Amino acid sequence: MYSPNIEKICALCVYAQKTDDPMQLLCKKKGDVRYNYTCKKFRYDIFKKKLPPRRSLNEQNYTADDFSIDS
């Protein structure tokens, strides 16, 4: 999430807004741009990064022995 090698594309920029077309964005600085466009005004917006879904714990696969300290 806070990786130093962030992919600098407009889809992750604070100036970009979604449009009806998923391949196009509306940039406050450059106007209508492609989602993967990059310019020198890029500023990373952490909330636009899509994270992988969390894994759910399936309770049926675990028993009490799995969580006990005694062997």
Task: Quickly list its features.
single chain, mainly beta, 3 strands, elongated
Task: Detail the topology: elements first, then pairings.
Blueprint: E1 16-18, E2 24-27, E3 31-34
Antiparallel strand pairs: 1-2, 2-3
Query: How many E strands?
Result: 3
- Principal-axis shape equals elongated
Distance linking N and C termini: 38 Å
Order of helices and strands: EEE
| Strand adjacency order, main sheet | 1-2-3
Q: Which structural class is indicated by helix and strand composition?
A: mainly beta
The low-confidence runs, each spanning 5 or more residues with pLDDT under 50, are: none
Compute the average pLDDT. 84
Please provide a written account of the structure.
The protein is an all-beta fold. It has no helices and three strands. The chain has a domain at 1-44. The chain is elongated. The two termini are 38 Å apart.
Write a concise synopsis of the structure shown.
The chain is an all-beta fold and 71 residues long. Helices cover 0% and strands 15% of the residues. It has strands spanning 16-18, 24-27, 31-34.
